[in-house]
From TrEMBL:
<keyword id="KW-0812">Transmembrane</keyword>
<dbReference type="InterPro" id="IPR046253">
    <property type="entry name" value="DUF6286"/>
</dbReference>
<dbReference type="Pfam" id="PF19803">
    <property type="entry name" value="DUF6286"/>
</dbReference>
<feature type="domain" description="DUF6286">
    <location>
        <begin position="72"/>
        <end position="160"/>
    </location>
</feature>
<keyword id="KW-0472">Membrane</keyword>
<keyword id="KW-1133">Transmembrane helix</keyword>
<feature type="transmembrane region" description="Helical">
    <location>
        <begin position="60"/>
        <end position="83"/>
    </location>
</feature>
<protein>
    <recommendedName>
        <fullName>DUF6286 domain-containing protein</fullName>
    </recommendedName>
</protein>
Length: 173
């Protein structure tokens, strides 16, 4: 049985929340208008005042800017609705359905790099399919970069196409 790939939240989640908040604000505006129209409040209708302000035949600069901003926001919502959600984990090669979180890959890579000769401290940083290992080398161990690459590559061998780079600097004497 093939399970779905683990994925992040869809790209349209934040625009959907923003749209829901805008609809909620519009509902409150309509409720205030209804309360003013029925005489339940002494205040004038906000909606009526806003529509009276728009009763000019010539378009004003703020109305054009607001329309352009609304069009761009609508386009952004439309694009976000069709973007697929990105994978949150990397698939490991093998007979099972094993997925590994980027934080776990960073930790395993840092541990493998620290076990290489001449490395004092290491940390991993994962971005999409790129893993950057930052290592602090003991003084006089410039050739440790190849050992770090070999050690990390051996430990993360079953993760398919993962681009590994090493950024090393020598510690102070």
């Amino acid at each position: 049985m093939k399970l779905r790939d683990p994925r992040r939240g869809p790209a349209a989640a934040w625009p959907a929340v923003l749209g829901a908040l805008l609809l909620l604000a519009f509902a409150a505006l309509l409720a205030q208008h209804a309360a003013a129209a029925r005489g339940w409040t002494a205040n004038a209708s906000w909606l009526g005042e806003a529509l009276a302000a728009l009763d000019d035949r010539r378009p004003s600069a703020w109305a054009l800017a607001g329309g352009a901003a609304a069009a761009l926001l609508g386009l952004w919502f439309l694009i976000a609705a069709f973007l697929p959600a990105r994978r949150s984990h990397l698939h490991a090669d093998g007979p099972g359905d094993l997925w590994i979180a980027p934080a776990a890959i960073e930790a395993v890579a840092a541990d493998a790099a620290e076990r290489a000769p001449g490395v004092l401290h290491a940390a991993g940083e994962m971005r999409r399919r790129r893993l950057r290992v930052k290592a602090l080398l003991a003084p006089g161990h410039e050739a440790a970069v190849a050992d770090i690459l070999e050690s990390v590559g051996a430990r993360l061998g079953g993760l398919g196409e993962l681009e590994v780079s090493v950024q090393a600097k020598e510690g102070a004497r």
